[in-house]
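[retry 2/3] Ricin B lectin domain-containing protein: previous attempt timed out, resubmitting with same input.
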Amino acid sequence: MGSAHAAVYPASSSSGGPGVSGCTGSANCTNESWGVDLNDNTGFIWSVAGGAGGDADLYVKVAVLSQTRAMSLWLNGSQIAVVTSNATESPRPTGKELGPFPVTLQAGNNTVELRDTQGTAEFDVHSLRVEPTIAGDDELEIGLWRLMSRADRGTLSRDAITGQLVGADYSGDDHQHWRLVGVGASKYQFFHEETGQCLVASSGTTALGGCSGSAAEWTVETLRARTVERPALHRLRSNANSCAIPSGGAQPTLGTCDDSARWYLEPVGFGERLASVEFDFHGLLLVKPNTNVPGVTQGSLSTSVVDAVQVAFEERLAYWMDLITDGRVAWYGSSVVSNDPITSLSGSGNENYLPAAVHLQQDVQSFVPRGEYDTVQVFFTPGDSKPGGWGWGPGSNYESNYTMWTTVNGKNTVASEWLSTVNSEPVEVFIHEPMHGLDGFYEELGVPLPEGVLHGSEANRYVKSKTPGRSYLHWYRDYWLGTVIASDDTYRGFGPRAFAQITPRDYALSPAVDEYKIVQHTSGKCFVPQGGAMKPADDTPLVLSSNCSTLASSFRVLASGVLKHLPSGLCIHPNQGTAYNGVGLILNPYCGPEVRLSFDVTSGGSLQNSETGRCVHPEGGSATPAEGTNLIFHDGCDEERLRFNLVLQ
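[retry 2/3] Ricin B lectin domain-containing protein: success.
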C-alpha cells in the first residue's frame, strides 16, 4: 500500500509583503484571491506530510499574467523539474494545474519549493497537490478523516489540557483529524494531524502514542458502505482482537467488538479531495451605498468598502466556495452599484431595518432579470440612526423575480477585511445568507436537511473553529456536501441529492412558478389569511372570504401536495401539527414534504389531509359560510358542502 499522503496545499498568506509565510527570496509577494503573486527573485515553499514515505506525483497549479514563464521545482533541496507555462495555457486568475512530477517522499515532513532560477518573470502560485502513486485508489489513504461515535456523534479529539483522547463537539480543527496509512490487508495506522502521534491500543483504552509496533495497527472493518443517503459504519479492531469503543465525553475503551464499537469515519479537510464541478451557483451583489428614508434614517457607505466588497463577492467568495467544497461548487459572482438611495426599509422601533425586494423594485427590474441568478445579495447601510442586523436571507418570491433575496449590512465593516483569503469573515456572510434560501428551496423538493437547518450547528454537534479565520467553514462544508450526520443515522444537507435538482435560476423560468391557484369553496368564498394580509404573521389562521382576486388568495400546489401561500411563502399546517378533529388551518414558514402537511383531492372534491384522512370543513359545517369563517379539519368528506376547487389564476 502507498504511504505518502494525498493532499492539496493551497498557496495563501496572511498579508502581502516581504516575510510572508511560504514566500522565499529577497523581494515581495502579494496575497491574491486565487493564491500568491510572486514578484522578482521570489519563490514559494510548502511543508508536505510524507507519512511513512513513498512514491508520489506532484502537481502545481499556477497562473501567468503574460508571455512564457518558468520556475524550477525542488524537493528537499534537490531540483526535480522546470515548470514552464504561458498566459494562454494558464491565464490569470484561472490558472492551470501542471504535472505530474514524479518524486519519492521521505518519511515525515518534506519541503517542496518553486524557485526563481530561470531568468523569466514569476508565476502566480495557486496550490500544490500530492498524489501517492502506489495503491493510490485506497480511499482511506486519501486526505484527512474524522472519527465519530455512532452512539452520540461525538468526535474523537485530543483534549488540550489532559492530552487524552475524548469525545467532543466538532470544531473542524486538527486535534480532531487523522490521516490513515496502510500497513497490510485492511490494516492502518491512524496518524494524528496535530501531534503526529498514532492511535494506539493501550491498557484497555485507546490513546495517542508512538507509531511503531502492532499496538498502532488497526483493522478497519466496514459494517456498512457509504451512500449519498447514509454514512459508512466501521469497527476498529486492534491486533489483540479487541475493538475501540466510544465512551461519550471520556476516553474510549477497548472491549468486545459489538454494536457499542461502531464508528463513523468521515472524509474532512479543505482541498483534500479535489473533484469535478457538480453545481454552478450564480449570484449578483447589488450595492446600495446610500440610504435616505425621510424622517427615519440616512447614511452612506465609504467608497473603499464599496470597492472592496465587489472584489470579495466576485473573487474571494469563489476562492472560499472552491476550498470548502473541494471544487464541487463553482461560484460565479457579478456586482452592480446602484446609487439611487434606499428610501424605505422594513422594520419599526428597535427592530432591524432591512431592504426587502418590495422596496427596491426599480433595481429588481433593472438588474435582476428572472432566471439569470440563483441569488441577489443587497449590500447596504441602514443609516446612522437605525440597526440593520448583519445578514438576512428570506428566500425568493415574485417581488424578487424568484431570485433568492438576501441583505448584508455593511455599515460597520472594514474594507481590508473583505479581501482576506486567510480569514473567512466577513465574506462568510455571503456563503451563509443564500443558504437560508436554498434551505427553503430544497426542502420543498424533498432534500433532507439537518436538524435545526442552517442555524442547527450545535444540535448537530458542530461548534466554532478555534483556528483563526476558519469560523464555521467546517459546518458549511459538510452542509454543502450533504454529509452532516443526523441523529437518525442519515446524511443531511445539500450535496448530490440537491445538485441533481433544478437550480433556483432555472426554476424561476419554469412553468410551475406561474401556476397560482385559488382554493375556492362551493359557496364561492376562498382561502385567505385572517385579516387579508399578503404577508401575514407566522401561524395566522386561514378563513373563507369573498375576496378571491388578490395575491392574498393565491396558493401554489407543491409537488409534495403541500399548499404554499404565494405572496408570503408560508405553507398550510394543521394548528399544533396534526389534523385532529376541530384543529384549525394556519400558515407557517415550514414547507417540508411531510405527509402531515400534504393534501389529497378526493373523488368528491374534498381537501383531505394525507396523514389522518380528515377533510377541510368550514367551521360550523355550513354550505354558505359567513365572511371570515375559520377552516378546520374534521371527519367526513365528499359532501357538496365540503367541496373545494383549485382554480388556476
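[retry 2/3] Ricin B lectin domain-containing protein: The chain has four domains: 7-132, 139-268, 279-499, 515-648.
[retry 2/3] clearing retry counter.
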